[in-house]
Design goal:
Layout: H1 2-37, H2 39-55, H3 59-88, H4 94-128, H5 134-154, H6 162-187, H7 191-212
Helix pairs in contact: 1-2, 1-6, 2-3, 2-4, 2-6, 3-5, 3-6, 4-5, 4-7
């Protein structure tokens, strides 16, 4: 009997530890890996860092900061939509379920095309190197940040802590921006490496076009 109660206590403590500690870590790690493991996210976020380094001065941090801040807003929207759908689904009638289904499909399609276009546009910006006005680039960066944020929020696993997941994908995004800044900073030091970087931008843009098909 004592062995049984000891075993049950061990299982209870193990489940509690998993629920309160391990799941939290998975939430953060899952969030931080989300932009890194998704190749379209990866290319877009590294591209933002490269573009900011091409412009230099204070824009080297302003452009990535705009992306991250608007991405957080998009992430909150995506997570909120997921939670609303989950909590309200049981109380919906058939018509409401159908409406939510089509609305969710519309959001997913719009976000996916926004992400694809971000790869095309940002890769093109690297290729043409500072030919577009900064205000236009900032506007598109903000829009793309929102699209990527919504995608992160919608794809959040149910079991994780939303706050830790959001902190994770924000951290992962910032790391990729810094990685892009470093690539751009050292590539613009010489004309040859700068030319290679612009060619890389063209390849990124072509990859985005490939994603459409």
């Amino acid at each position: 009997m004592k062995l049984i109660f000891t075993s049950l206590l061990f299982l209870f403590l193990s489940n509690s530890l998993y629920a309160h500690t391990f799941t939290g870590k998975i939430g953060f790690l899952d969030g931080i890996s989300h932009p890194v493991l998704g190749f379209d996210h990866f290319l877009a976020m590294v591209s933002v860092g490269i573009i900011s380094s091409q412009f230099g001065k204070r824009l080297i941090w302003t452009i990535p900061s705009v992306f991250v801040l608007v991405m957080i807003i998009g992430g909150i929207f995506g997570i909120s939509f997921e939670f609303y759908t989950k909590e309200s689904f049981q109380n919906m009638d058939n018509n409401e379920v159908i409406q939510i289904f089509y609305f969710a499909r519309y959001i997913n399609s719009a976000v996916e095309y926004g992400i694809i276009f971000s790869v095309i546009f940002l890769g093109g910006c690297i290729a043409i190197e500072k030919k577009l006005p900064v205000k236009i680039i900032m506007a598109f960066v903000a829009f793309f940040g929102f699209c990527h944020g919504v995608a992160h929020g919608l794809e959040m696993p149910w079991a994780v802590n939303p706050l830790l997941f959001g902190l994770g994908f924000s951290t992962g995004t910032a790391i990729l921006h810094i990685f892009g800044v470093i690539i751009g900073y050292f590539s613009i030091k010489s004309s040859i490496s700068s030319l290679i970087l612009r060619f890389l931008g063209m390849m990124i843009s072509f990859y985005g076009i490939y994603l459409i098909f």
